[in-house]
Amino acid sequence: MGEEMKRILIVFLLVIGMTTVGWAQDYEFVKKWGDCGRWDGAFQYPMGITLDARRNIYVADKQNNSFQKFDPEGNFIARWPRESELGAELYYPYDLTVDMLGYTYVVNSYSHSVKKFTSQGKFVARWGTEGQGDGQFSYPFGIDVDAWGNIYVADTKNNRIQKFDSQGKFLLSFGKEGKKEGEFRVPSNLTVD
């Protein structure tokens, strides 16, 4: 075996060893909350989860067509949108994110859009329609926000990521269907560093 192969093998074994050590840690169950249902604090099909700057927990519930907010201990705070709020309706929300100002952005997958809510859950904006053009979506599943307030959406069936400012103005997109670098096969989530 050549020296180069030995170095590769050693690096590989070190990586495997570190991975095994990481997985060998003991984990302790801390807490659970929520039942299966349609009432406040319950879930039908929770999909996305995120934290705000105060460590409050937000959960997107696909089947209940809503998202809920809990304090860091898991105590229910609120459910949005309220049925009476025109334009705020959600249709299969898959994911959500909260920016540094407290605005919540929800990917409304089956209506091919993003909806924006205040920290009190008031609906303030919507962008996106079904399609393949800039700012259009085909079943978006994932969303995240960067430190500058830009919104990134995993445009799942269009096999790309789109970037918007906090007002929903399209900035750029990247990716296409494929298996090579810079290509995607139904991207369903993302995280912005």
Automatic annotation (TrEMBL):
Protein's UniProt keywords contain Glycoprotein: no
Protein's name in the database: 6-bladed beta-propeller
Gene3D superfamilies: TolB, C-terminal domain
Database matches in SUPFAM superfamilies: NHL repeat
Keywords assigned: Repeat
Coiled coil: none
Cross-referenced PROSITE patterns: NHL
Classification via InterPro entries: 6-blade_b-propeller_TolB-like (IPR011042), NHL_repeat (IPR001258), TRIM-NHL_E3_ligases (IPR050952)
Organism: marine sediment metagenome
A GO molecular-function annotation: zinc ion binding
